[in-house]
Structures are given as C-alpha cells and as structure tokens.
C-alpha cells in the first residue's frame, strides 16, 4: 500500500524587509555582470519544492539526525529506517522550482560555473545543472559503514517493501503522515519494522548523507575551495551559514577579495562580510538574475 504523505509545515510568506528590492536586484546584476560566479546553496532554495528546512521563518523546531544517534543502538537505527522508508519518496518525488531552473539557465549562459550544495535532495541535478558538488551527499545512495558497499535507495526500498508489507499497510491505514526534513516521516510506532544489514559484510547501512557530527570528506572540501578560487564571485542562496560546512567558503571568498553575495530569508553568519544581501525568496530573485522579469512585491 502506498502511504500518502503530507508536508509538515507551510513556509511563511516573505516579509519584505527590503522595500528597495528592485534596486538591490539591479545592484546584484551590476556586480555579477562581467563575472563568472559559483553558487553555494542551502535548504532555503528547496522550500518552494515542498521540502521543509530547519531554520527558515515559519519552520517548526526539529532535531536533526546526528551520527552519534544513528550509531547508538540497533533499535534506534530500525526506528530511523522505518521513518525514512516512508518519507524518502516525498523527497524523491519533489521537482526543481524556479530557483533551481534559473541557476541552470545561468550556467547555460556561461555566467555560473557550477553549484556547491549543502542539500541532499538532488534537485540541482534534476534541474540540469552540470558538475554539482554535493557536500553532504544525497538521499539516493546507501552505503555500508564497514566495507563501503553501495546501492541505490530505490533498490534498497524494493527489498524493504518486501520485508515490511504489513508495516506499510498498518501505517498507510492511518491516512496522511507528516514528512520532516531529510526525508524523515514523523511516526512513533516502528517496533515491527524489519531492517537489513550489508549483504557483503553484515555491516551497518546508512544513507550516503553527512549527518550532524560528521565531517565532509576532505577531497570534497578541497574541490569546493578550488571552485571558489576559480570563480570571480560567490553567490550564497538559501543558507543561513549556521554551520562551518558552508560558512568557510564565504569567509574564504572574502579573504581573497571576491564579492560575497547572499540571497536568503533571514539573517546569516556572513551578513557582516557580504558585498550585498537580499532578504527574499530565491525563487523570486534568481529568475530575475537569469534574465526574467523583475518581480513585483
């Protein structure tokens, strides 16, 4: 039985903190007019695609998954995988919004080099952007923590569905369920869910996602620094830069005298070093930057 999912929240309508949005858009265009730039994105770019985030205005308080929690016990991992089994298809079914598509247009125009993303939703790839650097991995892959055996989330789902038909029917009979960030469905009773171990070595299977408490692979960090070095400017979209994973690239661009431009709802940790900050929705600002009509309101 296919369980019906629902978004657990509605993003707050933008408050127009900038009465001079048109002027700020004109300034953003002027700064980037003769430059090739790289974009760093966070969860705020995907809220218009129906994927909740942790920090935007209107988002409920949630506790993100940590590596310590995931490794704490087999019972916790069963609980996690049961929730993920029901929730991951919501992320899989999501489609790029106007902001993702605008970045692809900017790349086709030869202005955007590529995207460094902190998101795991694969929406930049779905939108057609080339060379996306996924700092935190993606929901579509699963790997073994012991031997690094890998499989697709689709393939694992088919196996789990065969093992958990009664579980899916029981949960599905309750109607719609809430989906939290990171493809986690909000359910409490998961004791009858059956999880599998790595078929190659019996190790722990984990989504190929960097949890809180984990470090981004050093080679990916270096690739990101190289992308920033090779660009003329850094545009941050939809990220509060709360964690160092993304903030370090904004600080690096600032230290190397490159413009740091920010489009984000609410404050970020790099506002003090930003050449320009636009407090508005990415799906409004980026299409205008790519050559669409200037938004009103």
Summarize the SSE layout with pairings.
Layout: E1 5-7, H1 21-32, E2 37-41, H2 67-71, H3 74-93, H4 98-108, E3 112-117, H5 123-127, E4 133-134, E5 137-144, E6 150-152, H6 153-163, H7 165-172, E7 177-180, E8 184-185, E9 205-209, H8 218-230, E10 233-237, H9 244-255, E11 260-263, E12 276-278, H10 282-289
Helix pairs in contact: 4-10
Describe the structure.
- This protein has 2 domains: 17-51 and 96-136 and 215-292, TPP-binding domain (Rossmann fold); 62-93 and 138-209, 2-Layer Sandwich (SIR2/SIRT2 'Small Domain').
- 35% of the residues lie in helices and 17% in strands.
- It has helices at residues 21-32, 67-71, 74-93, 98-108, 123-127, 153-163, 165-172, 218-230, 244-255, 282-289, and strands at residues 5-7, 37-41, 112-117, 133-134, 137-144, 150-152, 177-180, 184-185, 205-209, 233-237, 260-263, 276-278.
- Strand 3, helix 5 (123-127) and strand 4 form a beta-alpha-beta unit.
- The chain is elongated and about 60 Å long.
- The protein starts with a strand and ends in an 8-residue tail after the last helix.
């Amino acid at each position: 039985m296919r369980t019906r999912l629902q978004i657990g929240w509605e993003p707050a309508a933008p408050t127009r903190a900038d009465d001079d949005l048109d002027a700020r858009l004109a300034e953003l265009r002027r700064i980037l007019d003769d430059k090739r730039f790289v974009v760093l994105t966070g969860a705020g770019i995907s809220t218009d695609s129906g994927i909740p985030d942790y920090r935007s205005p209107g988002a409920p308080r949630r506790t993100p998954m940590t590596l310590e929690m995931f490794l704490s016990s087999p019972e916790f991992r069963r609980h996690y995988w049961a929730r993920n089994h029901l929730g991951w298809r919501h992320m899989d079914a999501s489609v790029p919004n106007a902001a993702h598509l605008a970045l692809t247009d900017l790349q086709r125009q030869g202005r955007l080099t590529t995207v460094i993303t902190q998101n795991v939703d694969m929406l930049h790839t779905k939108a057609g952007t080339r060379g996306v650097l996924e700092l935190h991995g993606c929901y579509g892959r699963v790997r073994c923590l012991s031997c690094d055996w890998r499989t697709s989330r689709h393939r694992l789902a088919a196996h789990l569905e065969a093992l958990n038909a009664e579980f899916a029917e029981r949960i599905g009979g309750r109607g719609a369920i809430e989906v939290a960030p990171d493809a986690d469905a909000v359910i409490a009773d998961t004791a009858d869910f059956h999880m599998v171990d790595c078929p190659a070595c019996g190790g722990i299977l984990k989504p190929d996602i960097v949890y809180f408490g984990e470090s981004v692979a050093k080679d990916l960090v270096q690739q990101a620094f190289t992308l920033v070095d090779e660009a003329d400017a850094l545009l941050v979209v939809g990220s509060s830069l709360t964690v160092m994973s993304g903030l370090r690239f904004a600080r690096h661009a600032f230290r190397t005298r490159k413009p740091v431009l920010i489009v984000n709802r609410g404050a970020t940790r790099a506002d003090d070093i930003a050449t320009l900050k636009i407090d508005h929705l990415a799906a409004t600002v980026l299409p205008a930057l790519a050559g669409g009509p200037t938004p009103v309101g």
